[in-house]
Specification:
heterodimer; A: Arc Repressor Mutant, subunit A; Alpha-Beta Plaits; 32% helix; B: two-stranded antiparallel sheet; 12% strand
Chain lengths: 167, 111
């Protein structure tokens, strides 16, 4: 059962459990308990509590598409929209399976930022030209094809490294 | 003249031509009829015209969506001339505008 939208404060142990799960969500309660020097029942209770409160939303596999033999490109679309239509555009985009993430942002103009995958540049362009540009409220689209992924994390854990003084 | 009126019709939003400057970069201009298409050709950046012309996008849309094989052939001939910049824009506009006028005049006279 999920208890919706109740604010829960996490303590140090909760955060450590989250970090352990982020590194390996398949590890058992006993393994996590051994790692953190606590009983497996404690780990079980903490995880259940975080699941019920929606802090842990789901467990998912991180797929290496290249190893899976799937040739693909990833791109980030920045879509400038008519503010009146923005929510509808975001909703429609979210329904496409090849659109992985969708965000709205307000800078000088109302923007939708979306991460999309395609087999190649031609497929990417066809998708944007035939499915995204014709949506009512889409004013302009800027697309950047990602050439290298340096980091991808769900949330920050621990402090940033201290900068080393030179000289 | 059924063919001319078909070519000159306004198409659905999903079938319109959307102008891009490069892969995935939509510049905000679109055309849903031959008349709008000729106007936009005059207005958009010539880089966008080069992008679409050399991918064969214009002739494909004119042929497959508007149903004008004759204009598609003329656009293809322009592509083979390797034009660029303002010269390409002028020639493309003239080609499309002449065809538009020809169809429009024929349609008016037949009424």
């Amino acid at each position: 059962m999920k208890i919706k939208r109740q604010a829960v404060s996490l303590d140090d142990l909760d955060w450590k459990i989250l970090q352990a799960l982020r590194e390996n969500a398949k590890q058992t309660y006993s393994e996590t308990g051994r790692l953190l020097n606590v009983a497996h029942s404690t780990v079980y209770e903490r995880i259940k509590k975080m699941e019920e409160h929606g802090i842990i939303e789901k467990y998912m596999a991180v797929v290496d598409f290249e190893r899976a033999g799937m040739k693909h490109i990833t791109a980030v679309m920045t879509i400038i929209t008519d503010p009146k239509e923005s929510e509808k555009v975001a909703e429609k985009l979210s329904k496409f399976n090849n659109v992985l993430e969708v965000y709205t942002s307000l800078s000088e103009e109302l923007l939708i930022i979306a991460k999309v995958i395609a087999g190649d540049q031609s497929e990417l362009h066809s998708f944007i030209a035939q499915s995204v540009a014709p949506m009512p409220g889409v004013l302009r689209i800027r697309t950047s094809i990602i050439t290298k992924k340096h980091k991808e994390e769900g949330f920050p854990v621990g402090p940033n490294p201290t900068s080393q003084k030179e000289g | 003249m059924e063919s001319a009126s078909r070519i000159l019709r306004k198409v659905l939003r999903e079938e319109a031509f959307y102008f891009f400057s490069s892969i995935g970069n939509y510049i905000g201009d679109s055309a849903a009829s031959l008349e709008e298409f000729s106007e936009k050709i005059k207005e958009v950046n010539s880089k966008s015209l080069e992008f679409h012309l050399y991918r064969g996008d214009f002739e494909k849309w004119v042929d497959e969506v508007l149903g004008d094989a004759e204009l598609a052939k003329k656009i293809k001939e322009l592509r083979n001339q390797q034009l660029a910049g303002d010269h390409l824009q002028d020639q493309l506009y003239l080609t499309i505008f002449r065809r538009y006028n020809e169809l429009k005049t024929g349609l008016t006279q037949s009424v």
